[in-house]
Specification:
single chain, alpha/beta, Rossmann fold, globular
Length: 420
């Protein structure tokens, strides 16, 4: 399922951090790195190439290769209206980057195998890990746990590089604006995902379920002792951002093979059901793609299930993952199932929303996590920052506001560290 290449590092038993630095270990920097400094330091050093990247402060990043066993879930041909040979509409099952990919593991140098893991899941339409590297480093520093940055299907390095090529995507966006005169928020950044999801909205389901099963496989290997960096029966917690929270909620609601029975989940700028988020943004989806996706997943899903045997097989009532997935699509659907499960696991869930987040507003986080009657005791905090931010970039790496951003970053990750 995945192959591993790792340097012959040998460590000692881990003890909690005694001082702050990048890794929070003795002998690290005398004072913590500021956010901007940490961001620039890690962005330039942490790459998916190579086996092990040593960092200052007593930690390293290890890179591994994962081979997905679930590409059969994906379309093997082209959807309606998809021209053969189109740059963006190659058969999903044949995208090699999505089938075999690299992922990062941040680990303290003073241990050989970890007994505690935090999975870090990213947001929608993300193309690189840069903004998450300081998050991983700070969580390692405050918790002492090993952090795994695991990519969602067709995101990050699980997509062909051409889908992020500025020149090519500018042309795709230009074509979309010509084809749809009323189109809003089209950009070279969202052109690829918008085009693909508009033509075949089922991709949201297929890629989500592929990622679900990839994560399940990964956790199974680790908890059985089959991963070189994790002890058998290691604990598994999750830190999820944006759409990564949706994935995490499906995992915990369905709890395949009991793998997530004790998992703690922290959601940052995430948590609502799908039809209570507003993803129309130059960084996420354009308006035409959003209309098609909403129509398929929310307004007409039941009709599609009746006419699509493959879709029905994945989302019918006999599938735990399918039921959990469907319960997170619409606020008014499967309410009793969703709220009963959230209530039972409420002590293991927490969230931070941002006051000026227009993609995932705080009140929608509360609506889903605290329930219709606000009687589910999941703690949801709403924070605000004195600088200009947005959902897609809560901590802008800008020198002019660096002090305020550093304070906001520290506030959020102190809460996260305390939770874990």
């Amino acid at each position: 399922m995945f192959s591993v290449v790792i340097g012959p590092e040998k460590g000692r038993a881990f003890s909690p951090p005694a001082a702050h630095g990048i890794g929070g270990c003795p002998g690290a920097f005398s004072t913590p790195m500021k956010y901007l400094e940490l961001y620039e330091h890690l962005k330039d050093r942490v790459l998916l190439d190579g086996e092990r990247i040593g960092l200052d402060g007593g930690m390293s990043v290890h890179n591994f290769t994962f081979h997905s066993r679930h590409t059969a879930l994906l379309p093997e041909g082209h959807g309606p209206g998809e021209p053969k040979g189109d740059l963006l509409d190659v058969a999903d099952a044949l995208v090699s980057e999505n089938a075999s990919f690299r992922y990062h593991v941040f680990q303290p140098d003073r241990i050989r195998k970890s007994t505690e893991m935090i999975l870090l899941f990213h947001g929608f339409n993300e193309k690189h890990w840069h903004k998450y590297l300081p998050w991983a480093a700070r969580m390692l520093e405050t918790t002492g746990k090993t952090i795994v940055l695991f990519p969602i299907a067709f995101h990050m390095n699980r997509a062909p590089a051409a889908w992020s090529d500025p020149r090519l995507m500018h042309q795709v966006s230009k074509h979309r604006r010509e084809e749809f005169p009323d189109l809003l928020n089209s950009s070279l950044l969202n052109a690829a995902i918008s085009s693909r999801l508009q033509r075949n909205p089922q991709r949201f389901i297929w890629s989500g379920l592929q990622t679900y099963h990839d994560v399940k496989d990964f956790v199974e290997v680790c908890t059985r002792g089959g991963h070189p960096l994790f002890e058998k029966d290691c604990t598994v917690d999750i830190m999820a951002y944006s759409i990564g929270a949706f994935l995490s909620q499906v995992l915990l609601l369905s709890n395949p093979d009991g793998l997530f029975s004790e998992t703690k989940l922290f959601m940052f700028c995430g948590g609502p059901v799908f039809n209570r988020i507003s993803p129309v943004s130059k960084f996420i989806l354009d308006s035409e793609a959003n209309v098609h996706l909403y129509s398929f997943l929310v307004e007409h899903l039941e009709s599609h299930l009746r006419h699509d045997p493959k879709l029905f097989a994945c989302l019918n009532d006999g599938s735990e993952s399918g039921v959990a997935f469907r319960s997170m699509l619409s606020y008014k659907s499967m309410v009793a199932f969703r709220e009963e499960r959230f209530r039972k696991m409420s002590g293991r869930l927490s969230a931070v929303a941002l006051a000026k987040d227009e993609v995932i507003p705080p009140y929608e986080v509360e609506n889903t996590l605290n329930g219709r009657n606000r009687d589910i005791p999941i703690r949801v905090r709403t924070l605000d920052f004195p600088y200009k931010y947005k959902h897609e970039d809560p901590f802008p790496a800008l020198a002019g506001i660096s002090e305020d951003v550093d304070e906001g970053f520290n506030d959020v990750f102190e809460i996260i560290g305390g939770f874990f």
